[in-house]
Design a protein that fits this description.
Shape: elongated
Oligomer: single chain
CATH class of the largest domain: Alpha Beta
Strand order of the largest sheet: 3-2-1-4-7-6-5
Strand content: 5-15%
Number of strands: 18
Helix content: 40-55%
CATH superfamily of the largest domain: Class II aldolase/adducin N-terminal domain
Largest sheet: 7 strands, mixed
């Protein structure tokens, strides 16, 4: 474990305790082997003068919803230390009461809710307190005789606490354990199956001790031969199988859900372990992970539909057997899967959730493999895991989830997405919650969209093999395909029929017509597995109102529109909708440079602004306008519409 403390950076903080607290919290938060996605918490005790001129000690503790890797001063909740210590003396208090009284003790009502471990931080009599869920330490405690191994590593220099449910019960237990001890005799505190606490009046010493304690655990694992899993071969899957799995998971979850495959060498090697179905399903690395990943992954076989069904039934039995009150069962869907011989699948309704599942499962897999070298993976019993999964405070977190966007969990594919209408469609789809594979011949596509929701693929749509690879890549990355915007096209040089250039004619038909047909054919098997599948073809005003000299373009777009009409007739019985938009005079695209616009406006005796609004409504039509219409046609509003042709041109007298 690398010590990231930088003395020159720390000196810039001028001994400001809260700034130092932010600094060391971020040092801890950027190390995944210490905390993941909101895990862990830190605090600092600061003496302040209140409005009455009285000095009081305030505990600034990490607030709910903040991540240590990015936390700021505003992410720490200020709570009166005196009130927290009084709470620790109570014999009984349920966790909702604890949360309420902690909030009542805050000196800033607009601050976030204090960590549920605020009382525990208050008990520890040091200025700085650090708490992580260090993988190495928890892994060792999740083995047979884990406590004995921990004692072997640290001797009597750490306080060892057997697993207790987080919240007031844990704080109360530690309060009773430590009332008569000298805290200065200890370097830290280890909560078995949970994590590590370190503490000191000096922020650097507390941080240093955390790094040292974890490093000693890592060294122990190395000495015992418990190394990280590795492999050489990559795992592969049939994309259509992934789409079928994703469809089943979405049905159980009752909402579109992404399924991301990872066949990297270490994951494939883990999936091939002879006892993976046993060791891989005994339980999570730490109990707080269960709210994200559930107790275990589903183990897939060739009969994956039956495997998923069996997982659901087992979860329902798990709930029934452990429910002693009036709890309402959570959705029984698996959150990740081990696919023997192939790798791992991670499920989520957004790429953010998928990334969380990927990170947690990756660390869990590493811990399982290491623990198996130390006598076996032995996480907490089912009863303790259930108690955590259905903990009232965790349930409250779930209730606070924001309303999903209209296309949350949907998978879209857009061709010609490097600029203009295609780029605007990608942005509009992401804004609605979809993930998008964007295809373009321009290699710059790789740098245009820098976000996990967008998969950029360099692809020549005239090449069937490249199209097939792009669609397969989309499905293995996101799990399936629901929406297609077939937009790629060119506007060729004008030729009259008696002077037509054969290459121009052939290229227009190839790009503007044939490539769309091939894309639809390749996408159809996946769209049949899609959720409310829909297609939008980007046509042209030239279909209903062609102009002289544009035969190569107009004929191809007319053929494309006819293709869409036939597709609507053929695909309707499969539940796949297909509609066409006919834009005109969309000037914020690459072909309409400033020079071209000036020349065309001058030709018609108009200003550029007059030229751009030269339609019946006298309004400019932008790429975003076309994209908004396209996304609406893909969505719920037009769920009963197929085979339609919708103009978006500001009103064209020739079309009308």
């Amino acid at each position: 474990m690398k010590n990231l403390w930088n003395e020159s950076e720390a000196e810039k903080l001028n001994n400001d305790l809260l700034k130092l607290r932010v600094y060391t919290s971020r040092l801890l938060g950027q190390e995944e082997d210490l905390v993941l996605h909101g895990g862990g918490n830190t605090s600092v005790k600061i003496k302040e003068t209140n409005i009455f001129g009285e000095e009081e000690e305030i505990l600034y503790v990490k607030g709910s919803g903040w991540d240590l890797a990015t936390i700021e001063a505003a992410g720490f909740a200020p709570v009166k230390q005196e009130m927290l210590l009084k709470m620790a003396e109570l014999e009984e208090m349920n966790d909702p009461q604890m949360v309420r009284y902690q909030r009542m003790a805050m000196t800033n009502p607009s601050a976030p809710n204090p960590s549920v471990e605020a009382v525990l931080h208050a008990i520890i009599p040091f200025t700085f307190v650090d708490h992580t869920h260090a993988d190495a330490v928890v892994t060792i405690s999740n083995t047979p005789n884990g406590e004995q191994k921990i004692r072997e590593i640290y001797g009597n220099k750490v306080i060892i606490v057997p697993y207790v449910m987080p919240g007031f019960i844990l704080a109360r237990e530690i309060y009773k354990m430590t009332r008569d001890i000298n805290w200065n005799d200890y370097e830290g505190m280890i909560l078995l199956n949970h994590g590590v606490f370190t503490f000191n009046h000096d922020p650097k010493k507390s941080y240093d001790m955390m790094i040292d304690i974890v490093s000693r655990a890592e060294k122990y694992l190395i000495e015992k031969g418990a190394l990280d899993i590795s492999g050489e071969e990559l795992g592969t899957v049939e994309p259509l199988q992934v789409a079928k799995i994703r469809k089943q998971i979405s049905a159980i979850r009752k909402t579109p859900t992404l399924a991301r495959f990872d066949g990297s060498a270490p994951l494939k090697a883990f999936s091939e372990l002879s006892n993976v179905a046993d060791a891989g399903t005994r339980g999570p690395l730490t109990p707080d992970h269960i709210i994200r990943t559930k107790q275990a992954p589903v183990i897939l076989s060739e009969n994956f539909a039956e495997d998923i069904h069996a997982f659901v039934k087992e979860y329902e039995n798990y709930f029934t057997e452990n429910n002693t009150g009036d709890l309402v069962q959570l959705l029984p869907d698996p959150r990740w899967a081990i696919w023997p011989g192939k790798g791992r699948l991670s499920f989520g309704t957004s790429m953010k959730e998928v990334k969380i599942i990927e990170d947690i499962s990756r660390h869990t897999i590493k811990a399982i493999n290491q623990a198996e070298h130390l006598g076996g993976w032995t996480p907490l019993p089912e009863k303790d895991l259930f108690e955590m999964e259905y903990w009232v405070l965790e349930q409250e977190k779930l209730k606070k989830g924001s309303q999903p966007k209209s296309m949350q969990g949907k998978v879209a594919l857009v061709t010609g997405g490097a600029g203009g209408i295609g780029k605007a469609c990608v942005e509009a789809l992401v804004e609605k919650g979809a993930v998008v594979a964007v295809l373009d011949l321009n290699p710059d596509i790789k740098g245009i969209f820098n976000r996990s929701e967008v998969l950029p693929i360099v692809c020549d749509v005239r090449d069937s093999e490249q199209l097939e690879n792009a669609v397969s890549q989309t499905v293995t990355c996101f799990g399936g395909l629901d929406l297609v915007v077939s937009n790629a096209g060119i506007f060729p040089k004008s030729y009259s029929l008696d002077n037509m250039d054969p290459d121009t004619w052939d290229k227009s038909l190839s790009v503007n017509l044939t490539s769309h047909q091939r894309l639809l054919t390749i996408c159809l098997p996946y769209l049949e597995m899609g959720i409310d599948p829909a297609i939008v073809i980007v046509g042209s005003k030239n279909v209903p109102a062609p102009g002289p000299g544009a035969a190569a373009y107009s004929v191809a777009k007319a053929g494309l529109t006819q293709l869409a009409r036939v597709a609507a007739l053929e695909l309707g019985k499969k539940g796949i909708r297909i509609n066409v938009v006919h834009p005109n005079a969309v000037y914020d695209t690459a072909i309409w440079t400033k020079e071209v616009l000036n020349a065309r406006a001058t030709h018609y005796g108009l200003s550029v602004e007059e030229y751009k609004t030269n339609n019946i409504l006298r309004q400019e039509v932008t790429s975003a306008d076309v994209a908004n219409l396209t996304v609406e046609l893909l969505g719920k509003t037009f769920s009963k519409t197929t085979g339609a042709q919708v103009p978006i041109d500001g009103g064209n007298d020739r079309v009308i």
